[in-house]
UniProtKB/TrEMBL annotation:
Name the UniProt record assigns to this protein: DUF4276 family protein
UniProt source species: Streptomyces ipomoeae 91-03
Region Disordered, residue ranges: 155-174
Length: 212
């Protein structure tokens, strides 16, 4: 009797405009999604948020790249996450962009999908974990008044960190190390103490994967 074929392993594929943002999500997703399979990235730099009238072909391109990546890993594509910066403060447009992209992802992808639509940008999510900053640079600390902000309303979080975090100045390339530090500190949860609705929406989408 021949042995049963080995079950293919599972993989989650991450896409996004920036390699730093993709790496941040590689740290974040396993912390939010227990028993997470391997998380890999694709390099397609396709912008979704500014292209609501041209979503279908762009999402189809991402789907095809994700399937090729999974096949190259000899794995089954079980989840797809795409990051986009809203690049503006959260308002009614945030809801419109999130709904349109989420609908297109669910229509196009053959697996679970989640949209990491950061408002205003990824730095808004990093600021939810203030204790992580001094773990990366000893001279960094978030001001007490910044910890109480609604980060979806902070117009330029990257520039804000560069002005107020301390020395050396914050750079985008620091972002994966900051998220890795937050994970190592055990601070990642779907409802961190800070305030950022766009982070909560992403965490809720991942949580919904477990229920399907």
């Amino acid at each position: 009797m021949s042995p049963a074929p080995r079950r293919r392993r599972s993989v989650i594929v991450v896409a996004g405009e920036s390699s730093n943002d993709r790496e941040v999500l590689q740290h974040l997703i396993p912390a939010l999604y227990p028993r997470c399979p391997k998380v890999v990235t694709i390099n397609d730099k396709i912008k979704l948020a500014p292209a609501l009238l041209q979503l279908s072909p762009r999402v189809e391109t991402l789907r095809d790249s994700a399937l090729r990546m999974a096949e190259g890993c000899n794995a089954e594509l079980v989840g797809f996450v795409v990051h986009a910066d809203l690049d503006e403060v959260s308002d009614q447009r945030y809801d419109q962009v999130r709904e349109r992209i989420t609908t297109q992802l669910r229509k196009t992808l053959p697996c679970h999908s989640a949209l990491a639509l950061s408002a205003v940008e990824m730095e808004s999510w990093l600021m939810l974990f203030p204790d992580a900053f001094p773990k990366v640079r000893r001279g960094w600390t978030m001001r007490p008044e910044d910890r109480r902000k609604d980060f979806t309303k902070l117009a330029n979080p990257k520039e804000h960190l560069q002005r107020h975090l301390g020395k050396p100045p914050y750079r985008e390339s620091d972002s994966p190390k900051i998220m890795a530090a937050a994970v190592a500190l055990g601070q990642i949860s779907a409802r961190p103490p800070g305030n950022n609705r766009s982070f909560r929406d992403f965490a809720d989408q991942l949580a919904a994967w477990k229920k399907k």
